[in-house]
Amino acid sequence: MNRHSSASFLLSVCVLTGLVLVAIFAPFVAPYSPTDVLAAPFAMPNADNLLGTDALGRDLLSRTIYGLRYTLGIATFVTVVACALGVVLAIMAAVRKGWLDMVIGRGVDSVMAIPQIIFALIVLAVAGISLTTLVCTMIVLEATLFFRILRASAGDIAAMDFIEVARLRGEKLPWYIFREILPNLAPTLIAEFGIRFAYASLFISALSFLGVGIQPPEADLGGLVRENALAISIGRTAPLVPAFVIAAIAVAANGIVDWFVHKYSIRSELGQ
Amino acid sequence: MRHPLLSFVIQRAGSGLISLVVVSVLVFVGTAMLPGDAAQAILGQDATPQALSELRQELGLNDPLFLRYWNWVAGALQGDMGMSFSSKRPVVEVLIPRLTNSMILALSAAAIALPLAIGLGIIAALNRESLLDRMISMVSMWLVSIPAFLSGYILINIFSTRLGWFPGLAIIRSSATLADWANALALPVATLVFITIAHTMRLTRTAILSVMASDYILMAEIKGLSPRRIVLKHALPNALSPILSISMLTIASLMVGVVVVEAVFSYTGMGKLMVDAVAYRDLPLVQACGVCFSLVFILFNFAADFLSILVNPRLREPKA
User: Fold this and answer.
1) Global pTM?
2) CB atoms A272 and B301 under 8 Å
3) What CATH superfamily is the domain A73-271?
4) pLDDT digits (tens, 9 = 90+) for A86-125
5) What is the predicted pLDDT for the residue at B1?
6) CATH value at residue B231
7) Which of B22, B153, B283 lies nearest to residue A239, judging by beta carbons?
8) Which ipTM score applies to this complex?
9) Are the CB atoms for B109 and B189 separated by under 8 Å?
10) Is B63 a member of any domain?
11) Is there a domain that residue B274 lies in?
12) What is the tally of structural domains in chain B?
């Protein structure tokens, strides 16, 4: 562990905490209402509008702050639910084995063989674009990835002697899930949670950018990039502001994971 | 008699097929659950019941679901994937030129990204833990976290709006020469390179490091061979198979990466086609694009696994 990595870890923690606080206290932090038309479209940054205005002349800073709420809110919700679902399924599959393990494993394999964004586009086309569909699709996709990585580790742990001892002592299934397996999975789980959170933020942003995510008049960060995309062709940088915030979320989350992975020397897909 | 390689191929082909069935069935079941049907979608809201029932008969919409699915599969295998609702043209006719455009974009990006990423990965591995290695891995961590539209718009802002070197919209006319193509593709290709290079580089670095940690490399060092000879004669031939399969994975991810990049540059590829089809709920088109993207993705992933298993016999037996 060197000084450089600790510095980038601290910076990542500060950035992510800052963004979360701004999102939570959006009404107090945002200088204007995100829906008020204040000035000419695509105004340059000035004293009144610190980051300039958007395609309709609304304050870009305020809109970005409110957009952040959507992006972080959805990413957090999706990751938490998908993580819980993945953990439960992985442990059940690892402990029970047999047909349950095989059915879940095959199901996960066939979903994972399809590119995630293509899967999401198909589901959104069939079920129609709504917040519920969006969140449910993302949960399913993320849960398969949680399952994949946890099933392997849970299998290793479930084969350990201390699990056998617990079983012979006559402990019930929930007991050794919570007291024996889960604590041993924790480091892998925490690292994976960070990676999946970063990915979920990027994913919802990409879908909204494509116009199939959060629908106007509401806008998350990806949606803001989309509504201001025209500014780029006239040399203004309005869409870059929300895009930078998305990148900041992902960079900070990955920065924290990186530090954590080094600290606990977890084998990860980052290939370190 | 068991033939490990053959059984691997059969198993993977089987699971790939299941995934393709999942993609196509998803659309079928969804269509059946929706209010209104294909006939309604083609003729619009104010169609007469007479016309609707005739078209339903013609499209076979009165048949049971599994029979319709079977007919669709049989048609798809013969190159007939139904009619697009929005353009009222056969799906295949709409799809093929778009697929070609996407392939051109993805493969041009691969031609630049692969040598660059593999080269950087090898350099990083050979200078392990040096300042250079740390810088490369730092930058690559940033690159994996940057959404494609951010790098795309930054490139447009610099090279199109400010410098005027390349167009910001990648519009290809039918009369385009090779130079027109290169000019239009420059920025989309650069964006794709940015979003894929980091992952490929990390994988290459790991692959080289694992080869360099083997006993025969230690043996070569003990024999007193020069580092150059060790890398070129001993390490590289053994790292070739992981590098080949990493290349296949990269092409697979480039083929999917085109979806967002095409939207940034308004490039008429299959990704943009699919996103537009989702917005119009043109389900036959969504289904065909979905199957096409998944097929390409599955094939390249399969090629990656197949190559690594072909060269490394130890992978053929499942680990105990």
Assistant:
1) 0.86
2) no
3) MetI-like (1.10.3720.10)
4) 988 888 888 777 888 888 888 888 888 889 999 999 888 8
5) 46
6) 1.10.3720.10
7) B153
8) 0.84
9) yes
10) no
11) yes
12) 1
